[in-house]
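Reopening this one. Same input as before:
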Amino acid sequence: MTERTTPPLSFSSLGPRRVEADFSAGHITTDAGALLLREADRHLGLIDAFDRAIPDPRNPDLISHSQRSMLAQRVLGLAAGYEDLNDHQHLRLDPAWQALAERAPDPEQPLASAPTLCRLENRVDRASLWRLADALVDGFIRSFGDAPPECLVLDFDSTDAPLHGQQECRFFQGFYGGYCYLPLYVFAGDQLLVSYLRPADGDGARHAWAILKLLSTRLRQAWPGVRLILRADSGFCRWKMLRWCDREGIGYVVGLARNPRLLRLAWPWMHAAANCWARGYGHQRLFGEFHYAAGPWDRPRRVIVKAEHGSQGDNPRFIVSNLPGNARGLYETLYCQRGEMENRIKEQQGMLFADRTSCHAFLANQFRLLLSAAAYVLVEAVRRLGLAGTALAQAQADTIRLRLLKVAALVVVAVRRVHLRMASGYPLKELFALVLARLRALPPAPAPAGHETG
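Same output, byte for byte:
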């Protein structure tokens, strides 16, 4: 007979059959698929890089949890949907999570508790945060291997992280209508380069120029011949930054806020679009260009106008650019693609919990933002390297989590192996096996100089 450790639970019968349950199945996890993230990190070396970036002042003889295992808990936990530290109170005995944290599964040796993880978050200093930010950029550069890119479009954008407590550097932001931080993100395609937390007492372009300088220097050190293009909305249109881009050979296509003078200069195209609409030719989108300089600018620059007219009336838009090419092509083919970055920010904020900036200390909240960034990098690596050419090649983080990471399994721990008996009814067995095979075929991240692997 089956040995039960708890009394059976009886449900309503199913025809002539009784429906019963008990809690005797042993170690079962709902996150067996998160092992794919571990394989992605084996190739990227991101969690190891984060571990090296943070000094550990603790006495190794007096600790139970390595810093590396705690970082794995937090980063992989965010990727798997566990947004709060309290979630780890329930995960610390899960043998699958112990394996994810590079720990031999042992019910007598649980993973770090929420208070222990909280102490890690609050001891990270400013110098460590800079090194963590460098690790993200270094990982991006390594992702290209021996095939350097010819051109990189750097998307800059900011968003809000609402605050509901008395956090340090807490300010009211009129545009978002509440107390918040203003994180700045930089993406190149789907890949994340910068995740930088800022107080909300400045505008959306605060420190953007400095970050662009640092990024361009680092990227050109790695790839001297790479062509860089800045793409951003009108909140980043600062003429001194544009002048610096002109001087440094960096292209730009940046939104320009409308004003009465721009509207006067764009009148011929707006008038033509309105006339075509009035004559019954349907929705109109006409493109033109002219040179324009606001009062403080050092010189006139090329401005492209999109003169749109439809059932809602005029809808003109303006961009400023130093790139060659026709006006329509620059606007529709290049500038409009920045909308994809907004989708990536939605993944970062809404699906990987970058807005959980609830620590009191500002630096701790910046660390949380970087942990979320690391979670995004791992999920994006699974999508880019494991799911290319499949039906989930463009899936967002929450879809990947639901379809690939949340897989139930019975965990059997033996002396020489950890065996996960995954659910027989899992509908994506072939896809899962394909992703795993692709990730396992990738070379592991190179060890840093002076570091020996076991």
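So the earlier flakiness isn't reproducible anymore. For the record, The longest helix spans residues 362-386.
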